[in-house]
Amino acid sequence: MIYFDNAATTKPAESVVRAVCDCMENTFGNPSSLHTLGLRAQQIMDQARKNIAGALVTAPETVYFTSGATESSNLAIRGAAGTYGRRKKKVITTTVEHSSVKEAFSRLEEEGFEVVRISPRENGEFSPADFINAADENTCLVSMMLVNNETGALLPVKKVFTEIKRRYSDTVTHCDAVQAFMKIPVKPDDLKADLISMSAHKIYGPKGVGALYVRKGIRLLKQNLGGRQENSMRGGTEAVPLIAGFGETVSLLSGTFAERTEKLEALRKYFTEKMKAMDGIVINSHEDAVPYIVNISAKGIRSEIILHFLEEMEIYISSGSACSKGAKSGVLGEFGIRPELEDSALRISFTHENTSDEIDRFADALAAAQKRLRR
Fold first, then answer.
1. Domain spans of the chain, in order of start
2. Is-catalytic flag, 323?
3. How many CA atoms lie within 13 A of 99 on its CB side?
4. Residue 212's closest CA among 32, 41, 40, 77?
């Protein structure tokens, strides 16, 4: 099997699986309970929170656990708008966001907010000036992803947030860092981000758990009504086994950025050289994109047809965002990719555990697919 769909989800690490199972078998108490089993569950959560806070270089009390990045982004966007949008009715985002962010802003628009959506320029890159010029005294929230999940494009979050904070210090800044956390350095103070969404299953952790960083002093309107869990930020009994797995995978990856980045940059270089040598293959991702996501197009072959062809050879890739279920998200078009290339786009996403031999086998399979399937 060759698995090149790591931007959709990763295979959980062995130590993560052990942490989850051990917690389910031996530390199954409710962390809100006052007895010993409850205390042990709470201690596991506390350690996971410290691990994530350490990776962010922030305080543990700024990290709140959720059911995943979708909930984190909804809590961030709707929570901030609910608190700070009573008088200020303008919000700013991009046209290339994940559906969880995109839909949250669409709902705000239905509720009467002015939503400004910034697109990349003709060269497929975002200009910080477009965000800065759109902001004013009536802006309560600016939200933009750090790494695009379909192309690997790195967005100018730091430049945008820094300047907006300089001009309008009370504007809240939110960053979807799902494709960035533990892959590139993500530090709230460096990014000038008040809110940061994260997910475990993109980094060898379990599905169903995420986290939201909330800068001290930022107030969010609670979205999950219920108990006083997560310091009254998010009601509902915490998924302790999944949180244990999240904490374990962050601990596992901490301190290995340089080693993993070096391996991934070498893999990307090898992959792009292979693709450039093939007829009918276009590389859609820019050269300055992160090294673990490469978007290509196989001219004349629809994405879903080639996906199923490769699947029969036990090679697993994606045509775009996993949450779109194969439907076009429109993101590639926003980045200036022509419709005919968008129709044949393939997303290949690596981890540092992938190999050049797997790339060779993928290239051979792709060539066979072109020979058989090209219109």
1. 2-10+256-373, 14-253
2. yes
3. 10
4. 77
In whole angstroms, give the CA distance from residue 255 to residue 66. 25
Tens of pLDDT along 363-372? Answer: 999 999 999 9
Q: Are 281 and 119 in contact (CB under 8 A)?
A: no
CATH number of 2-10+256-373: 3.90.1150.10
Q: Is the pTM of this model over 0.90?
A: yes
- CA gap 245, 17 in Å, rounded: 7
pLDDT tens-digit series, residues 125-179: 999 999 999 999 999 999 999 999 999 999 999 999 999 999 999 999 999 999 9
Sheet architecture: strand order including 281-283: 281-283, 293-298, 345-349
- Kindly report the CATH class assigned to 14-253: alpha beta
pLDDT computed for residue 327 by the predictor:
60
**2-10+256-373 and 14-253 share one CATH topology?**
no
Contact present, 181 and 55 (Cβ < 8 Å):
yes
Give the C-alpha separation, 244 to 46, whole Å: 9
**Among 21, 23, 175, 323, the one annotated catalytic:** 323
Note the pLDDT of residue 237. 85
